[in-house]
Amino acid sequence: MNTPSTDELMTESNNHYVSMWEALERLHRNEDFKKVILDGYFRDEAQRGVSILATDHVVRNGLRSEVMEGLIAISRLQDYLGNVENMGNIPPEDEE
User: How many Å apart are CA 26 and CA 57, to the nearest integer?
Assistant: First the structure.
């Protein structure tokens, strides 16, 4: 049974993240992705959530935690996509 070497594991991991980054780059060029995720979710939904945090209805009914969970979800997806970009965007001089 052959055990993969550290270099082989690193190469496989790098290839995975580069592939994910390439897919993310294609998504960023897709107008539907921009409209639904980047503009609709990351911008509009985040602004909506922030704007309703201090409304009387939300405060009186104890709904702030629910609104915050929505904002946290937005943050988690942004963080994940940022990690894909950071891990997969390997400068050419570092590809070895």
Answer: 41
Question: How many structural domains does the chain have?
Answer: 1
DSSP state of 61: T
- Do 20 and 41 contact (CB within 8 A), yes or no? no
Does residue 39 fall inside a structural domain? yes
Q: Provide the domain limits for residue 57.
A: 6-90
Helix (H, G, I), strand (E, B) or coil at 89: coil
Look up residue 89 and give its amino acid: N
Rounded CA separation 88/27 (Å): 14
Mean pLDDT lowest among 1-10, 33-42, 60-69 = 1-10
In a domain, residue 82? The reply is yes
Average of pLDDT values for 45-64? Answer: 96
Write phi, then psi, for 26 (nearest 5 degrees).
Answer: -65, -40
Tokens 């790098």 sit on residue:
14
